[in-house]
From TrEMBL:
UniProt keyword terms in alphabetical order: Membrane, Transmembrane, Transmembrane helix
Top-level taxon of origin: Eukaryota
Sequence intervals crossing the membrane: 12-32, 53-74, 127-151, 171-192, 223-246, 252-276
Organism: Paramarasmius palmivorus
The protein's name in its UniProt record: Gustatory receptor
Length: 336
């Protein structure tokens, strides 16, 4: 069987990207509902309670995702014209190809910026903890800018054969992957330490009636799992894109198409799943201490309050019993 050509790979990529785009639109709708509506269908949130940054990113990402898909459709339509699709693949400096590269780079930069922002916020806006992620982000930005400049001057080579672009695009993906792995690890480590600290602080104050609930996942552990799963989803696709490009495989058309839509899907899923974890989390009407922890995924405010149950109702019952016994003894002595 002859190897797959660029033309055939582009057709497969268009189909796969269309499927992923449909999934992305579903997650976009659910994400907007989470950001704009009060829980349990109680109407829209006041504008002051809406997380404006998250909303802006949610509205920007579908623009570039839609443009990229539309340009792929245009290229497929033009392939049946007089020029033929082969010439289109060799003209990487055309307006269509440059715009497509811009959409992919922009989508990646936005996602990496939001991940860096989450890391900065979750560490109580510590600039020290954001230094390395920020440097990596600027590395991705620099590679993206240089990529577009060189791409504009490339007119006689295909994507898989353009030697001038290979080190730039490889650096772009490698830096983005490093940023995602490093920053996600920082976020998970922060959440892990917070949960362990809460477990130690509350261990001596958990009553027998509440010990049965200790096996249940805490809200923080759920958020940890969500962050890890979303990070693995995006990073695995980015690694696949990098590998297929470095090896010169035509599969890069398919993996890059998936990556384009996966960025938005992973971002939306964090918002949706954190909101679901928050709404299904168990609460107790007892006295609680709160430990400040910063996290972006919360609605409007970035302060996360993690409850440490004291279960003061048991001590209260014992106190009432003691007071009643004392009053009875006092009345008996007075009668005597």
């Amino acid at each position: 069987m002859p190897p797959i050509t660029d033309q055939q790979a582009s057709v497969v990529a268009l189909f796969v990207e269309s499927v992923c785009y449909g999934i992305y639109l579903v997650t976009l709708g659910l994400s907007l509902r989470t950001l704009l509506w009060v829980k349990h269908g109680e109407g829209m949130k006041p504008w002051s309670q809406v997380n404006h940054l998250m909303l802006a990113v949610c509205l920007i990402m579908p623009i570039t995702a839609t443009i990229n898909l539309a340009l792929n459709v245009v290229r497929a339509v033009e392939s049946v014209g007089p020029s033929g699709i082969s010439e289109q693949f060799k003209d990487l400096g055309s307006d269509t190809e440059v715009t497509k590269f811009f959409c992919v780079n922009f989508q990646t930069l936005v996602a990496d910026f939001m991940l860096t922002y989450r890391c900065w916020v979750i560490y109580n806006r510590s600039w020290l903890m954001a230094v390395v992620p920020s440097l990596l982000w600027f590395g991705v930005f620099s590679a993206s800018t240089l990529n577009l400049v060189v791409l504009r001057q490339t007119h006689d080579e295909s994507l898989t054969a353009a030697k001038a672009l290979r080190p730039i695009i490889t650096s772009f993906w490698a830096t983005s992957i490093a940023l995602n792995i490093f920053t996600t690890s920082l976020i998970v480590w922060r959440l892990y330490r917070a949960e362990k600290g809460l477990a130690v602080a509350s261990l001596s104050r958990i009553s027998d009636s509440s010990r049965g609930r200790r096996g249940r996942d805490s809200w923080v552990s759920k958020v940890m799992r969500i962050i890890i799963e979303s990070g693995v989803l995006y990073t695995s696709v980015a690694i696949s894109t990098c590998i297929t490009y470095v090896t010169g495989s035509q599969g890069v058309y398919v993996t890059s198409a998936i990556e384009m839509q996966t960025v938005g899907i992973a971002f939306n899923m964090i918002i949706i799943r954190v909101a679901l974890a928050d709404s299904t989390g168990y609460t107790q009407k007892t006295t609680k201490d709160t430990i400040p922890l910063q996290i972006v995924a919360r609605q409007h405010t970035t302060d996360l309050e993690i409850s440490v149950t004291k279960n003061t109702h048991t001590d209260h019952d014992e106190l009432e019993s003691t007071l009643a016994r004392k009053r009875s003894e006092t009345m008996t002595e007075s009668n005597v």
